[in-house]
């Protein structure tokens, strides 16, 4: 007769069973890998797996110069390193303390067949089958599919699978995203008088607590008002005056702040966020042209998001013809600046000469990846369509005497699998605020036209 287990052994077994039930296994789909090739490393002590279908899909993305091609290649190298010492169909311990395991899942043998249920053998349904099989094989684990594809999450939940978005890099409270400027009422008149008489006021006299570095203010007393900015080096509030840049004059306080940051020699990284028509790109380009003598080149770039997610090859013509429609909004802003001066004037000819001599370059973002960013002003338009990793890659290439400007609208995202919380512009604003090299301005008032304002406000 088998003797009963001791209390100590029973307690140990209970702890192991409880620990197993609290363990999690996450299955990553292709969209997560293309968003962050290091995603496998970000699930702590929990196990992580990918269906073999994901490897097959990544094979289609490994060629090219876009960021998704880079992510695919990096992840394939990661898998290759693991496979040198381990069989990928077995659980492989991930290197590092407090890390779980990794494996590649087969997608056959699931008790529930997603391909039959949805009557389609597409890759998404193979990924669902692989996750369903893992859930069946690991009943003591909480198995969850991680995907940035909302529709795939809905399909998973319809099959009684837990499904969630990839949270690493997401901004949790985007409604309170740093704005870069504030309106302060009931400021003592002595502070505003000092700003006008002396141009600056010690921060201790003006505000009870120091604000974020390079923060901007509209200050109002009962009698007057002033625009100001916090200089973190001098620890003073400085008066901000309206100034023009190549014929462009700011039309409101926020535009004044943006142009001040763009022209400030100590501010090397700038983000400008706002809806369409607020003047983001125009101000960035005007500020860059005003400083053209201080830099060798001005690059104005934007990511290409093909119409309906169709590849550029869908469009007719050569490479320049294909990218032309995507770059046209940037040329429109340059033409607007040129139109501030008479035809054949010295200033208009100087801008044209910069284009002819490639000192002012308007190009897709993919065309300048890998280049040295020394002694240039680099403007990235539509930055909300970039991932956090793309933003980091761009900034990390900055050399000496480089100023980088990101403009965009975090509520106008055209890239699949990005949203207001996970896009690179929101990530950058949240992570870099309160740094002496950085300034951010949120533009709220549309200045394009009354008709454009009507669309933004009412439609």
UniProtKB/TrEMBL annotation:
UniProt superkingdom: Bacteria
Gene3D superfamilies: 5'-nuclease, P-loop containing nucleotide triphosphate hydrolases
CDD domains to which the protein is assigned, alphabetical: PIN_VapC_PhoHL-ATPase
Residue stretches making up the PIN domain: 24-154
Keywords on record: ATP-binding, Nucleotide-binding
Listed GO MF terms: ATP binding
Assigned GO CC terms: cytosol
PANTHER family xref list: PIN DOMAIN-CONTAINING PROTEIN, PROTEIN PHOH
Family named by the database record: Belongs to the PhoH family.
Protein name: AAA family ATPase
Species in which this protein is naturally found: Nibribacter ruber
